[in-house]
Amino acid sequence: MSDLATHLATLDGHLARFRDKGILNLIGGHDTPGSGGMFETHSPVDESLIAQTARGTAADIDAAAKAAKAAFPAWAAMPGDKRKAILHRIADLIEARAEEIALCECWDTGQAWRFMSKAALRGAENFRFFADLAPSARDGKSLPTTDHLNVTSRKPVGPVGVITPWNTPFMLSTWKIAPALAAGCTVVHKPAEFSPLTARLLAEICHEAGLPPGVFNLVNGLGEEAGKALTEHPDIKAISFVGESRTGSMIMKQGADTLKRVHFELGGKNPVVVFDDADLDRALDAVIFMIYSLNGERCTSSSRLLVQDTIADEFHTKLVDRINLIKLGHPLDPATEIGPMIHKTHFDKVISYIGIGKADGAILAAGGNRVGEKGWFVRPTLFTNAHSEMRISQEEVFGPFLTSLTFQDEAEALKIANSTAYGLTGYLWTNDLTRALRFSDALEAGMIWVNSENVRHLPTPFGGVKASGIGRDGGDWSFEFYMEQKNTAFALGHHNIQRLGA
Ligand code: NAD
Hints:
The chain is of the alpha/beta class.
C-alpha cells in the first residue's frame, strides 16, 4: 500500500547516496565530476536542496564526444540481435527500478505520482519497442531498372547528442535515446539542469545492463555551457533536441559550422475544438485532462479551448466546477492530481501570464493564484472571453493554464485554430464525420486526435509543424533521423556508356 508517508520514507533512502556524492556525470563508463564544479538541484515541492550536480563544461562534452566516437565502430558493427538483447536488459532494469525512478521524478520535477508511476514504465516500453526494431534497422530496398540493380541500406550516422527538457524527463529521454542506440549510434545525453536526477538513474541502468563504455554518456550542465558545446562539437553528427522553439533556433545557429543534422521537438499552443454536436461529457473530460494533467507542463497540452458559442456558457460552467475540484497537493500523495511548477523561474513565468490575461481583458474564471508559501504551486487556471490576438491565446505558458475562446462556425474555428506560430497537436470534438475529415485535413498540426485525448501509439509519427518542430519520432521515422541512407547501383550488363574523346 503506497501512501505519502511510505513514499517519502522510500524516497529518502534512494536520495541518501546523492546527498553524499552528488549527481555525477558518466563518461566512457566512469563517474566523473563536472569540470565546472557543481550546481544545486532543488525540489519544487518545498524548495529544499536535493543534491549537488556535476556542472559539465566544454571539456566534459569533449571527453564524452571522444568516448562516444571511440565506442561507435564496435557498437555500430554489433549484430542487431545483440543490440536488441542489451536494450531489452535496459527495459528489464527500468521495470525493476520503476518505483525509484517515479519517486525521484516526482520529487525533482513536481509531477504527480499518479502519472509518473506510469511514465517510468512507458520508458521501459520505449526501449522494448526500439529493441525489437534493432535487427531490421539497416534493411533497405531493392529498386531495379533494366540496366541496374539499385540496393539501399542504412547506416547509423555516428555519435549523436540528445538534449532534453525537464517535463517528464525520464520517459521523454528514453524515446530519443532508445532509437539512437537501436540504430547503432552512440549517445551523449545533456539533460535539463532543472531535472538531473532520473537522467542519472538511466545512465546507471544503461551501464549495468551491459552497454559497452562510451556507448551512452551523460553530461549534466547548463544549456549555454554543456548544451551549446555539444551542439558545436565536430565529432557529434546529429542533435536530437526537445525544448523551447527559441532554443531550437539557437541550436540551429550553433550547429551550422559543423553542418549538424537536427531533429527538433519544440513548443505548442494546441487547440481543442469542441463543436455543439459533440459528446460534451467526454469532451469535457478530455479538455480538463489535456491541460491540467502533468501540471500542464506538457508540449501536447490543449492550452487553447475553442468552444462553439451555442454551448459555451454551459460548457464553461461545468468546466469551472470541475477545475475547482482538481486536487492540488504533494506530488507523492497518490490522490494528488496537480503538483508544483518545476522551478521558481517557471512559476514566475506562469504567474506573469495571469497578469497578462487580466490586462488584455480576458476573464479569470478559475484559479490564478499561488497556493502555500513553500513550493511552486499554482491553482489550475482558466481564462474565458479571450480573443485570438491576445498573448494568452498565442504564447506557450506551459502550466495549468487554459485560455478559452468561442467561435460561431467551422470557418471561424479553423481560422482561430491555425492562428498561432505553433502546430504540434490538435484535438477535435464533433460527431459529424465529414466535418471531422475536412477540419482535420485543414488544421495545421503534426498530430490530431478526433474525439480523443492524446493517446500515443509508438509506431505512429510524433512531431510538429511550423514553430513546433522539424522531423518525426516513432517507428521507422526515428531511424530516418539516426541513420544515413545509402544507395548502391550494380550494372546488370553492358549498358551504353557515352565515350567522350574516343
Ligand atoms: P529549454 O529549451 O529551455 O531547454 C531544453 C534543453 O535545452 C535543456 O537541457 C537546456 O539545458 C538546453 N539548452 C538551453 N539552451 C541551450 C543552448 N543554447 N544550446 C544547447 N542546449 C541548450 O526547454 P525547457 O524549458 O527545458 O522545456 C520546455 C519546452 O520544451 C516547452 O517549450 C515544451 O513545449 C517543449 N517540449 C516539446 C516537446 C515536443 O515533443 N514537441 C516535448 C516536451 C517539451
